[in-house]
Amino acid sequence: MSTASTPGAVLAQRRLGTFGGVFVPNVLTILGVIMFLRLGWVVGQAGLVQAIVILLIAKAITLLTALSLSAISTNTAVGAGGAYFLISRSLGLEIGGAVGVPLYLAQAISVAFYLVGFAESLQLLLPNLDERVAGSAALLLFLGVAWFGAGIIEKTQYVIFVLLIASLAAIFTGWHPVADPGATLRPAYDEGVYFWPVFAIFFPAVTGIMSGVSLSGDLKDPARSIPRGTILAVLATLVVYAAMMVWVALNADRAALKENPLVLLDIASVPPLIYVGLWAATLSSALASLAAAPRTLKALALDKVAPRFLGRSIGRSNEPRVALVVSAVIAEACVLVGDLNLIAPVITMFFLATYGTLNIVAGVERLVSNPSFRPTFRTHWLASLLGGAGCVAVMVLISAPATIVAVVVIGGIYFLLTRRSLDTAWGDVRSGFWFSIARLGLLRYISSRQHLRNWRPIVLVLAGSPKSRRRLIEFADLIEARRGFLFLSQVVTGDWAELLPRQRKIAEALNGFIREERLSAIAKVVVAEDFEQGVSTLLQVSGLGQFEPNTVLIGWSDDRLNQAMFAGAISRILQLERNLVIFGEADAEDESTLTETIDVWWYAKENGSFMLTLAYLIHADPAWRGHRIRLLRIIPSEAGVESTTASLKETIRELRVDADVHVIVSEEPPMSVIACESRNAHLTLVGLSVQRMQQSEAPLATYAPLAAQLRGHFMLAKSWHDLKY
Known about the structure:
By secondary structure, the chain is α/β, with parallel strands linked by helices. It contains 28 helices and ten strands.
């Protein structure tokens, strides 16, 4: 993500190592304002036992996230943007941006969170001090420090790290045991306070694992530094927090723990070092967040998720100074709110959403067995998915309404980014995920028992130029009915050498048409010496295993040459055991003048069942639901009307199709009767006769008079199960 133009410049920018670039910023952010100002309150409310449970749940989530983070970061070169970079390069720009924007806001708000904590501690020392003024002054100072880049932040954090260690030493060398240490083992929640709200206030204490990742663009070796520095920071701070909880429970009674935010002053052997450590921790955390947030925003801007000007630098430095100023403005707005307990849950929800997504990324990458996912740090997919599930569960337990708001915000951003159709120059895990699902589904489908009862329309559409045959494509889509699949195909006939270069362009045009029309289809283009060979080739190469076309849809043509060309192709289609449908477009200029009926002309059971199924699928479309399906049959005498009617009604009951039965007595030629009865029907389905086609050089000539007389759409259909008719 660096914008430097030379390799030397890139190396000059990437100057931070594991200790200074990951471990120290993580530890300083984790051991921050919560430890000094809210740890005693957490133990006082929840009791030592439940406080340890809160710590273990929070740390389990962050440890699982750290493992997932380590796996992802050792699989790819990590660029600027930290967690956003990793998510967007794995799940795609839309999901990355949907999570990256809340992540950026959480980082910017975290700056205010730590500064408010700093101001609150100052007010305890100087009661007349205005917290908002103190927080704003500190923010202005840190804006100046961050202006000069990651190098100054690194040097500043070393000093703060030493001061933090000194304050911890002062705490653990202080010893003022209470008379009854067991009194604080059990919870004693105030009215309106219970386990999960306390967890929500404590959780920001463990969210510092993103500090090192957010500086990924400044690390010498991100793939090595991020796993080591992050996991060590999580484990080290787990020990510190557990020891602190036990220590305050032993050295302070419940009243002091609940009511005195700076109870550590009464415990420490050198009380002034508590202020030093508190200020060091809060200010360093604020500084780390102020360094991380602009880099996330810059990455969002460079990927065009955020406005591009937000990623610009000012002056010769490559620091994201425009993003820095914007982040400072957001932080200042939150500083003016000035309520630590109000800001903490907001940060918790945003970070949990980010952590959950990171875990899902790592779990899905491993689960789909993408060959390109080869991290040097390995973690089981189950651990990652458990981490993701834990994040979601904790979000709901903390606040179901807030979780819904977070989901709506992330979903809204995702929707907007999807509508913008942003182009990316990288692949992501989504294709691997769907490949695995498709592979599993195909293997299960192929091994399953195939039966006509489970028939689905997988249609090979001989579309030619689809834009000139929109009605044909429309009816193909109606037949598919979101229950099958379409192969939108074209046969290019002629010399192989001359036409092969055109094949890819035609396929690209077909794919473009499929995307525009949002069809459940893929494009298939073959080059063949003649049409018959092309159709035969298409039927043999389209699909995979048993997931292959079972029906061929061709457009009707009045051209006798085209009909002659179809002769061999139709024969091949039936020989290869595929159903055949020939579609003719309505002659009526205004379709509203047609009768709202779908006429199905019955003769043989197999073919009739096939046509009724087609009618049922078309009727399922909202535009056709107002039409009535009519099942019609011609018989020569009145004597058979009652039995034929009963037989047809029994058939539609078996097939579970809502249709009206009409039995027509006539000795006229069937084509004449059909033309007369269905002349104004919106759609007419008629069975094809193999015998009639074989008796003529132009196999469809027999049906030309019928096609000329019907004003509505028509389909000539043939099920390969019934080759006698």
